[in-house]
Design goal:
mainly alpha, AhpD-like, about 0% strand, peroxiredoxin activity
């Protein structure tokens, strides 16, 4: 980890809550809002989130599984999302969520008319904006955690060790 965390402090709490008090708590609140208030279906949400986790390489983001009403995506979902182009286990909206996440993270200038035509046929304006805000949150905060090494020393509440796969 590249951040010096005082002895006895939880690294995640310290970095996200204390180190930059004018920004960290607001960032944490935005991150929490993405999970608490998303109206996207769980599998669509997780298809996009896991794609960003893969692109970012954030270790605990890769292992974490979002839970809603006691439900999580099935074992093996990460592998299906990784193979979003050919996976028979993904529906059209899940496949588009994964595609959008990958392209948003790696080639946002390449989101062409063909992509938007397919996306707009499946998602309305509100859903596009909501998904885009989620993607922005995951890219920013997953990369913060990865580049600082937080993902190597911390676990999130409700973390599911070894859940990837």
């Amino acid at each position: 980890m590249i951040i010096d965390v005082p002895e006895g402090k939880d690294p995640l709490t310290y970095v996200w809550g204390e180190l930059v008090p004018g920004i960290g708590p607001a960032a944490a609140a935005f991150s929490a809002a993405v999970y608490a208030h998303s109206t996207l279906a769980l599998r669509e949400f997780e298809a996009a989130r896991l794609t960003i986790a893969r692109v970012n390489g954030c270790l605990f983001c890769l292992d974490y599984r979002t839970e809603r009403d006691g439900q999580r995506v099935e074992a093996g979902f990460f592998d299906e999302v990784t193979a979003w182009r050919t996976s028979p286990a993904l529906g059209e909206r899940e496949r588009l969520a994964a595609e959008y996440a990958e392209r948003f993270a790696t080639d946002h200038h390449g989101l062409d008319e063909d992509f938007w035509s397919r996306m707009r046929a499946a998602y309305d304006d509100r859903q596009v904006v909501e998904l885009t805000m989620c993607l922005g949150s995951w890219i920013a905060f997953g990369r913060l955690n990865r580049v600082t090494g937080l993902d190597e020393v911390c676990s999130l509440p409700a973390h599911v060790p070894g859940a990837r796969g």
